[in-house]
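User: Fold this, then the next.

Assistant: Folding the first:
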Amino acid sequence: MLSLPSIYRGIWRVAVHTLRTRGTPLSRNLCTCDGVPAGLADAETIYALSSGHGRCGVAVVRVSGPASVIALRCMAGLTHNLPSPRTALLRSITDPRSKEVLDRGLVLWFPAPHSFTGEDSVEFHIHGGPAVITGVLQALGSVPGMRPAEAGEFTRRAFQAGKLGLTEVEGLGDLIHAETEAQRRQALRQMSGELGRLYQDWTHKLKRCLAHVEAFIDFSEDELIEDGVLNQVDGSLNDLQTEMEQHLKDERRGERLRSGVQVVIAGATNAGKSSLLNTLCQRPAAIVSPIAGTTRDVVETALDIGGFPVLLSDTAGLRDSLDLVEREGVRRARERVQQADLTLVVVDCAHIPPDAQEAPAFLQEHLRSVLPSQEQPQTAFPVNRHLLVLNKSDLLPEEHRQTLSRELRWISGLPPVCLVSCHTKEGLHDFLTVLHSSIKSLCGDPLSGAPTLTQARHRAHLQQCLAALAQYQQYRDTDLSLAAEGVRLALTSLGRITGRVGAEEILDIIFKDFCIGK
């Protein structure tokens, strides 16, 4: 849902009001602008502020549709020739009704089909003050055939014109919302069409297989089909099935990078969990006190760690309690640990046995008390899913601290162990290095290897595609028509990812996430 500051809601309300209250005949309200055909007023031409909301030096207002040329002539005073395509021209921007000068800025003309939407398009680069933007939007609303754009409508028109595939559209949306370097790289790679080309290649292979199966059904009795054509189809579908299964075995890296890594801080009361949260986000996000059980609810903060998006959560200390509020906090903490991509298990160094050789067994037992039972292996805890943070290391004698560090460094069966002090910041650099390495392994490198899945809907459609291919295998020797239907269903499922088949029902879901003007 788009949320605008009140001043810009006012701007938008003016534009919409102008559109809705324009009840006079077109001939009375139309700036004819030297013979521009008024019949274009019946077409759908859209306009919006595309540069984002907030005071700025320059704002960009975008117009797309057949009436764009009317807006350009009326508001830029171009009575004869249009400007050269994609060339900035400095003009006075005027109200087509009152002829009042609204601003002085740049206009750019993008004739179809060489524009973002594939339609005739115009951009007005104006000063970014609210009064200027209001005036220009209101003036555009007075031009016949114009209406305010809906969220994502420019991009939707680009998709419908074949300028962008559906996966490229999703990549563009991710690029707009990208907050970290890794997210930007992944979005740019998808927007370039690499993921779409992979799916299109699979689509072409499925079409070829389906054509061969249907040809065999229709013409095999006439001996017009070569022997072994079904064996070739079998081989192609087996290879394709293997590729899809490998593509799905990505451990949700692309989806995790897109939405952010869920990192949860968990442990016993007074271990220093909230202090660790405050240290990582470099602000007092959580209350810290010596009283056990201070944190009752989940405290969340978004971070950028080495270019990767992280949603860091501090949770209530894990202990048995008679307090109903604290018990609810503990329940929420355990629930959040179950959902976590990475759990930082914080331990108070004061509770570690003085004999360093006893520390590994103590820590293993502590991990079992914190982590869900399904994450407790018989041998070793997953290296990239958990980190042990031994906090308050400044309270240990130097000799004991060094002995403990050596003893735990190469212990098998434990996740990486970091000794830190949130008070003195000792060990924090090494901890951040280990944390970044763990997060990077969870997200992967967005620029290396094959393109990864970034959307849950991609995964769902690919799983449906594999299920349909299994139908082909099931009926291949008994009912070839049902087997062919399995290939057809697989093709439909794959087409829903790229938007080539059955796209209409998913377009609204995708485009609603775009902002107005994009």
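Now the next one, as you asked:
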Amino acid sequence: MGQVLAVVTIAGIVVVKAVLESIRASNITKNPTLQAIDKAEDPEDFVQKATQEVADKAMADKVQAAEVARREAEERLRNGVQPVVLPTSGEVEAAKAKVDYQERIFHFAVAGVAGTGKSSLINAFRGLRNNERGAAGVGVVETTSKIGRYADPNSDNPFVWYDIPGAGTLSQPDWLYFNNQGLYVFDCIIVLFDNRFTQTDAAILANCRRFQIPTYIVRSKADSHIRNVLNDMGYDPDEDDGTQYQPLYVQAREQFVAATRATVQRNLQDANLPDQKVYIVSSRNLLTITKGRKLSPEIIDEFELMKDLLEEARSRRCRPVSTA
């Protein structure tokens, strides 16, 4: 039909007579389209209408494809999947200025959804209790509304820790989180989660891969979660004669750690991201490390996390700070 309906336009006049003569001379009787053209009262009008129908259908198909693409984009936004938007060089420089980025130090960002304990973790990294002077503000609700910048008090560590406002709030839509916060300028990003690993966490990791930023997945409040598992196992401190707690704690801890690692691995696979280690910590145990105290027997990954972060910083960026 495509050959039959081929037309040549000269000065706005559609030429079809030669095509019609060719149809009649060919004695083709098996093609219904050719028969319809030959039998039409006005063959030229028939061809023009048929051609217009083809053009209309092609336009309708394009409109439908555009509508499908629009719906898919809206669905991705509703699901928290951020569009791929690369920052301009001007936006990068503005983001660096916003966080006072300096070439001779290492910039750690702690990011994640609201309420995961980012401020408490930063305080522990810096060897401060939450109520000490200079500590990042903490609270039951999300207390961070803008990026907080906290230099490490240890002069041997030329680091700065950044407390990033939590995603998943009205002020921080999930799909805008990475670019809006300028996370692409940081040297390392700790993706912190509490109760569950979310699509927002996966989106942060995916963007970090795009910008080749090292990431560390950390689950916070391990001590509280293990106590909850203990309670679910039926442990009652009032009925403990001193022999129940330790074996039950070991069992609860192993159960919590195994479930956490399996869940994160599954979520990474679902997001088409490579598997990576998840560090399970509590800020209380982390604080004993940074203050140089005796390590708690309940420590899980706190010491390993600190060691890996320090090695990351010193191997990639840090140089001795000049005293001049």
